[in-house]
Design brief:
Elements lengths: L28 E4 L2 E4 L2 E6 L9 H11 L4 E2 L4 E4 L12 E11 L3 E6 L2 E5 L2 E3 L5 H14 L10 E5 L5 H9 L4 H10 L2 E3 L5 H11 L6 E7 L13 H5 L1 H4 L3 E2 L2 E2 L4 E2 L9 E7 L4 H7 L8 E7 L7 E3 L10 E8 L4 E3 L3 E8 L2 E7 L6 H6 L6 E9 L4 E11 L4 E3 L13 E2 L6 E2 L6 E2 L6 E3 L7 E3 L13 H6 L15
Parallel strand pairs: 5-17, 18-19, 22-24
Antiparallel strand pairs: 1-2, 3-6, 3-10, 4-6, 5-6, 6-9, 7-8, 7-17, 10-11, 12-16, 12-17, 13-16, 14-15, 19-21, 19-23, 20-21, 21-22, 23-24, 24-30, 25-29, 26-27, 27-28
Helix pairs in contact: 1-2, 3-5, 4-5
């Protein structure tokens, strides 16, 4: 749909106030001579892309390239929200740019339109900025994929950050529109040309307070290449983990697949994720690929497991993600389509856990579970049929399993005794002597699984799911395991 087919809605601005709301976090606010001065303009963006076109991170790069008179404060933020939202696009990511009057030593965060982009660690006092509103609105109207009827772009500019509770609800649950209306009233400016859903994600990205932070460098394609096959040297991607150990989720060795390059026809060429931000530009330069049009570093909540919350089975809610601890009830069984399902039990009830076909070797791990094994399941909650779609599995305890190798011999006549049923033990057919079931000789059953954490291959992991590589680096007390090999 053409740009001019939309009549721009009335802008909504809140009057500047010199006092904070009671209880609001005073981040980015300084008091000078009794007057509170706001130090950062937070710009939130969401829902500008569709399943087949555009990327909200690209919209953010274009906004940064066009803004004049304001500097980036810190790294741009890519904030992944609840991955179970039914109307999400690909990764349910929202963007937050922090803009102001740069103070302190600048540092590079990317390259746009042939020029290095510098950010600053802090800002001087800022006022509402009409030019920023105009530029932001133009960028959204120009780049958002309005051809998709489900796209509802949202843009928020505010010096008054919402509390972190909004982020935690947005990453773990569904946020109703009425929850954000008071926050929109307090924002300096917000813009929603069609629908209001994007405003929720935009505000949630602003409300994120980094805790377990990761980073991503995103490289973009020139426009004439959008929708064509991406050219990235596979062997260079395969070497990233060894050359830059702080990076993760680069290459799927099990399925021989380059994970850093998306498969959709969006503007992104590739994205490299890691824990050390300084390693990412060097990792990008190590790759042989088609020309990079622009690149930008992002601070993210990816690979942090922040979408997960501990719950009992009875408290599971659809469209959320949970960590549930319990024991294996019904043993694993294959399911049509290549999936594997087993039943998890805790004090609150029973629920099926499913490893879907794309998880590949992870399913072999699931098939090794036995009734009574104590586990911790990580995953999203499906509504109908109610089940946990597994993202990770932690094996906590493996009870000893044994198998009977023979019937006991009669202590009187030394003949092999006959079983008289599961609860009846054994009886000698010659003299009638009885023996309990435990008199039979048993041997332990070898298990092709051990205590530890298991995960699907890189290609089947969610953006928010914390990989074993990061868990291990942070000293998780459990033994970290890999999927078992097939039995010969």
């Amino acid at each position: 749909m053409a740009y001019n087919a939309f009549r721009r809605p009335q802008r909504r601005r809140a009057p500047w106030r010199s006092l904070l709301i009671s209880g609001e976090e005073a981040h980015g606010v300084y008091t000078v001579a009794g007057i509170q001065q706001w130090m950062v303009l937070h710009v939130g963006l969401d829902d500008t892309d569709s399943l087949t076109r555009m990327c909200t991170t690209y919209v953010a790069t274009e906004l940064l390239a066009r803004v004049r008179g304001l500097d980036p404060i810190g790294y741009p933020r890519l904030v992944r929200l609840n991955p179970n939202i039914p109307w999400k696009t690909r990764g349910n990511g929202a963007l937050c740019l922090r803009l102001g009057l740069g103070r302190g030593a600048p540092f590079p965060i990317g390259r746009l339109n042939g020029k290095e982009v510098m950010a600053y660690p802090r800002s001087g006092p800022v006022e509402p900025n009409e030019d920023l509103y105009e530029v932001s609105e133009d960028v959204v109207m120009e780049l958002a994929d309005f051809e998709d009827p489900d796209v509802q772009p949202g843009l928020v500019v505010t010096r008054r950050r919402p509390g972190p509770g909004l982020y935690w609800k947005a990453v773990r649950d569904v946020v109703p529109q009425e929850d954000v209306e008071p926050l929109l009233d307090e924002a300096d400016y917000h813009f929603a040309p069609r629908g209001t859903r994007g405003l929720i994600g935009a505000l949630a990205s602003i409300s994120w307070r980094p805790r377990d932070t990761t980073y991503e460098v995103l490289a973009y394609r020139s426009k004439e290449r959008w929708g064509t096959r991406r050219l990235v040297k596979e062997e260079d991607v395969m070497a990233l983990d060894e050359r830059f150990p702080s990076t993760f989720n680069n290459y799927d060795f099990e399925n021989r697949h380059v994970v850093i390059a998306p498969s959709s026809p969006c503007p992104v060429l590739l994205g490299i994720r890691g824990d050390v931000v300084a390693d990412l530009p060097r990792a990008l330069l190590s790759l042989r690929s088609e020309p990079v049009d622009r690149w930008l570093l992002f601070e993210t909540n990816q690979a942090t497991d922040e979408h997960l919350i501990r719950r009992e089975v009875r408290n599971l809610q659809p469209h959320t993600s949970a960590i549930v601890e319990g024991t294996v009830g019904e043993p694993p069984r294959p399911f049509p389509g290549g999936h594997v399902v087993f039943q998890l039990e805790d004090n609150g009830g029973k629920v099926d856990c499913v490893a879907y076909e794309p998880s590949k070797a992870f399913r072999r791990t699931i098939l090794e579970l036995r009734q009574g094994d104590k586990i911790r399941a990580y995953g999203s909650i499906r509504d109908e049929p109610r089940s946990i779609n597994l993202e990770k599995l932690e094996v906590l305890d493996l009870p000893l399993l044994t198998v009977k190798i023979a019937n006991p011999r009669c202590p009187s006549c030394r003949k092999s005794m006959k079983s008289v049923g599961r609860a009846g033990g054994f009886r000698c057919r010659r003299c009638g002597t009885r023996a309990p079931a435990e008199e039979a000789p048993f041997r332990p059953v070898a298990r092709n699984i051990r205590r530890g954490i298991y995960e699907p291959p890189v290609s089947a992991r969610r953006h928010l799911s914390k990989p074993i590589k990061r868990i291990k680096a942070r000293g998780h007390p459990a033994l970290v395991s890999t999927p078992p090999l097939r039995r010969p």
